[in-house]
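Quick one, T. Sequence first:
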Amino acid sequence: MDDKIETTAEHVERAVFARCHEVHADPDTRCTEVPEKLANKQAVAEKSPAQWAYERLILYIQNFEKTLDNEHEVAMGFAGGGPGTLRIEGMGYFDPDIVTFYGSDPSGAKTQLIQHVSQLGVMLRALPKPPETAEPVRIGFRLAQDLETSA
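Structure tokens:
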């Protein structure tokens, strides 16, 4: 049991700021970083479940992309199998509870996944970048930049 005494202000502050905790087998693996602007952008109670899911997914996508080489891009697999993978080309949310992914499937067909936050289960995958593109597309960095400018 933790006998740490906390003031009311500390308790309220802790409840308002976004936190993340991860443990990895590789001790050199960095945990998902929560940017300061995002962590205290709005009080927890003021964000919809869709906004929370959207913002956290951006952090996970961005950190996943940091592990990729120049021959791969981020895609998502659908938890539980389903229709395969979707190369993530855009993402959004619709308050209070919908997250949307835009992209293409491995055949190049335009794809959109509309997901309720209570059913959200996303597996990030590395797919080879299309051979006709010189550099891989890094959607996570564009999404994170949008969070920073809209904060």
